[in-house]
Amino acid sequence: MTSLLNKLPPSIIALLVQLAAILLTVFFSQLFNTRLAPYAFALLCGTFAATLSHFAGLARWWLFIQFVFAPLLVLMLALNIPPIIFLIAFVIMLVVYWSTFRTQVPLYLSSNKVWQAIETKLPSQQAFTFIDLGSGIGGVLTHLSQANPIGRYHGVEAAPLPFIWSWLRIKFGRHAQCSVRWGSLWNVDLSQYDIVFAYLSPVPMDALWRKAKQEMHPGSTFISNTFAVQDQPPQETVSVDDLHRSTLYVWRM
Ligand SMILES: C[S@@+](CC[C@H](N)C(=O)[O-])C[C@H]1O[C@@H](n2cnc3c(N)ncnc32)[C@H](O)[C@@H]1O
Prior knowledge:
Blueprint: H1 2-7, H2 10-31, H3 38-55, H4 60-78, H5 83-97, H6 100-103, H7 112-119, E1 128-133, H8 139-147, E2 151-157, H9 160-172, E3 178-182, E4 195-198, H10 205-215, E5 221-225, E6 236-239, E7 247-252
Parallel strand pairs: 1-2, 1-4, 2-3, 4-5
Antiparallel strand pairs: 5-7, 6-7
Helix pairs in contact: 2-3, 3-4, 7-8
């Protein structure tokens, strides 16, 4: 059971736990032959959900979300908000975050200071190719192409809205050295690039390192913003004086 749960993304485990908590709450109210008021039902449900989440091995911050989920649901229903608002909010979240529930890599952006720090790692004499894996709204690509026009800058982005945004930004900003495509970073052949940049999350880093090791050519450079690779010390780290105190990890392959 635990090994099956380990294979599922936390968001799916959280959903299954909520369903189990509803069943348990219904079971208990039947057992004691009581008809619970909606808030009491929701609070009991939240308590079961938080407890089960603990045993399912979810991170501690999930327990809070799991506890408040059903009570907030009842509260929102009581506010009588038109359903269309929820549909619109859902569609916006879907096009911005897309498969984040599975990849565990949400959209957040590198700072300007990170862009400038990457700039210093680019060749200044000979032409090169650069890729941003999970290129978001294209800020890294468009900045670097202006700072160092001898490179070719590519991006791959899985979420529809950031992809469309970056595509329009590149097209209408006339960034001729840039291109971006909609797809998964796992389908990119990294052997085509001299510099591979990623700003993802701790979750995919081990698998990405294996892919980089397998595909990147000798002499190429792999740069990760913020997220290191376990047991793979980088040749260089660059501390960036931005809001998040970002660190760039640099490996020469
Ligand atoms: C933290 S953001 C980084 C955005 C940009 N690279 C930057 O530094 O500002 C990570 C991006 O990776 C995208 N992403 C996550 N998993 C992906 C995948 N498997 N293939 C392509 N893009 C992915 C997300 O949609 C998100 O836009």
